[in-house]
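ESCALATION

Customer reports they have been waiting on this structure for their group meeting. Please prioritize. Original submission:
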Amino acid sequence: MNPFIHIPYYPAFDAMTPENAKAAFQQLLPEARAAIDALEKNAAPTWQGLMTALYDACHPLYDAWGLLNHLLSVVNSEAWREAQESVQPEIVAFSLRVGQSKIFYDGFRALRDADTASPCLTDTRRRILAKVIQEAEHAGVGLRGDAQARFNAIQTELAQLATTFRNNVLDATKAFSLTLDTREDVEGLPDALLTVTAQQAGGDPQQGPWRITLDAAVYVPFMMHSANRAARETLYRAFVTRASSGGLDNTPVLERTLTLKREMANLLGYPTYADLNLSSKTARTVAAVDGLIAQLAAAAHGAGRAEMDALTAFARASGFDGDALQPWDIAFWAERQREKDYDYSEAELSKYLPYPNVLDGLFGLAQRLFGIRIVPADGTAPVWHPDVRFYNVLDADGTTLAGIYSDPYSRPATKSGGAWMNEFRTRRDDPGGCVQRPLALMACNQTVPVGDAPPLMRFDEVRTLFHEFGHVLQHILTTVGDPEASGVNGIEWDAIEIASQFMENWCYDRATLQGMSRHTETGAPIPDTLFGRILAAKNFRSATALLRQILFAATDIDLYARYPRPEWPDADAVKRDCAQRYSPVPTLPDDRLLCSFSHIFGGGYAAGYYSYKWSEVMSADAFAAFEEAGLGDEAAIRATGRRFRDTLLALGGSLDPMDVFQRFRQRPPSIQSLLRHAGLGEGKF
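Update from on-call: job pushed to the front of the queue and completed.
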């Protein structure tokens, strides 16, 4: 049986191939078209007759398509690319066929306007209907003739451009490597990085050679620790020019994407793509996004300049004799400054953070806050790679709530960079009382294990793991039974980062950090003295970090709301202008970082990168509730955690995110918690 057809609860990832994917869609596409045709003829304006029936008609196709795209992101190959690209135009056409159905659209509106006393039409379902109606309008249901044909052509081309963009970034990342041959070449590198890079080069950790790549698990610590300035420059220039030349050049891809999204928005009656996108977000307007950026920039600008001046002074006092710090110097000297000011090194801290212990500590935190247990269940569900683990999630009474796949390690040749959460199953309550349990994935690109020794995690990798686990928690702890609003579904994009960023705060909680740390040699947890230094260093260069996020958010909103302008002849000019306004760190003239900015050109953050900071206003304020309760008061922490679970984790897209937040906090969010956590505001608990 084809594993992409009649997919069981646990997808048969171990049996899925590009060949059976292509064969499956040859059957699934005509079946879905036939089901839609039949439903249009017989649809009744009731929840079961329209919404449930439409979900059932589309789900087999969309389920298979989602799994195909997942495999493309974790076991990428030419065969998987060809399979995905061969099907994608037909998937886009089918989605437009459904979204532009006047019969369905009229049915949605009739159902929305039905008798308010109907027991089937809950407030959640009314919210779902409002979103479905808006999605249909954004899908071009109101267009006719040439306008609709042009809109559909744009949608098809945009889907292909996004795929091309992501593939070019992956290929450019894995195409570059720098081989270093002598101990002098690798001076300053931690032992763990020497081991990993020697393994990649087929060398010896102490004798070399060492293969340095642009994979984040290698690139980031190399830039922080390598005393080889020439090598840092080579690596940095390669990183910021990825996918910007030759056959992998994303410059025309991103320019075409910007042009098409402007045209698409105009066809729908919006002046810019940003206006179109924000109409379905909590921010609503470009002015609101501009206001957030301005408020954060005002708080961080002076501190960011002061941080750069302090770093320059430190580097000069420590032996730097160049004219000025260059971009490839920043991470190196910042790490030296942090080591001196706070008296610990990243390598020292990493020895306390073996991945298995960190994961156990993370799961222990989930039990402490939310009353759930996460237990290994390897063998329960097929997986796509030997690195992947599977876990069951149990409630306090032992009931199985959900399942989690974890794919933690970097595979730069076949796995997309970064970290993400994905959903394979969403909670769905059927009228007979059966509940489909959620299945979620947390994917990271952490340092790979070497031999039998557990990999040691950098603290940034720990924060990333906590972040993705926050997304997972919001999906698996949902109590919403309608899949359109269950888990992470139906949540406005600029509120989707609340739970994930909330979880990052726990990396600085004493009980959490000490509970998940075990020294790789002694087994001892992080001592109080080291914890104190980590906490003291929490806001080291925090203004610079905030300004970097502001730079990305401002560039994104300028590109989708204001570009082109006479002073911006190309997209890169927008980035250069924003860098001059916001970044205290110098930018190279040949920097082409937009060519690898997958968030806004190959992902879902176009005109939405501000969402990280928009969400962080609420996530920081949510964590402040735990601070107010008293982080040492276990009873208060558990009670606050239960309230967080019952609101921000449980309610999904069933309510406006602001309403959900106010149910938890009993007031609107305040930006002060975010600024205080970054060391840029007043007040302490």
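Sent to customer with the following note: The beta strands are 177-180, 210-213, 373-376, 389-394, 400-409, 420-425, 428-429, 435-436, 439-446.
Escalation resolved.
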